[in-house]
Amino acid sequence: MAAALLAASPAAARQDDNEKLKKKILEEVEKKLKANEERLLKDLAKIIDEELAKLKKTPPAVEEKKEPKAAKKPGFLGIGLEELGEDELKVL
Q1: 84 DSSP assignment
Q2: pLDDT at 78
Q3: pLDDT tens across 52-84, in order?
Q4: Distance (Å, rounded) from C-alpha 31 to C-alpha 37?
Q5: Model pTM?
Q6: Buried b (16+ CB within 10 A) or exposed e, 31-67
Q7: Helix/strand/coil (H, E, C) string of 28-57?
Q8: I need a labelling partner for 57 at 20 to 30 A (CA). Which of 43, 48, 69, 71 fits?
Q9: CA 92/CA 89 separation, integer angstroms
Q10: Consecutive H or E run containing 78
């Protein structure tokens, strides 16, 4: 029975070491992710500020309303004189 306990101890110790190592690695990764997130947020804030400053410097373009020019040629309604018959031409 004592031999079974001694055999289980190194396996349990290895399991604890693996869990500690896993926890340490995850903590390091979390620290790096938080640092990167903070840096990214600062960079994005800077870019947004720059873009807003550009918008403030340039006034929005105001389009002038132009009145449509009169057509030089009369409009075509889709009926040509050659399509009309003799009776219709006499009526005109």
Answers
A1: S
A2: 64
A3: 998 888 665 666 666 666 556 555 666 665 666
A4: 10
A5: 0.41
A6: eeeeeeeeeeeeeeeeeeeeeeeeeeeeeeeeeeeee
A7: HHHHHHHHHHHHHHHHHHHHHHHHHHHHHH
A8: 43
A9: 5
A10: none
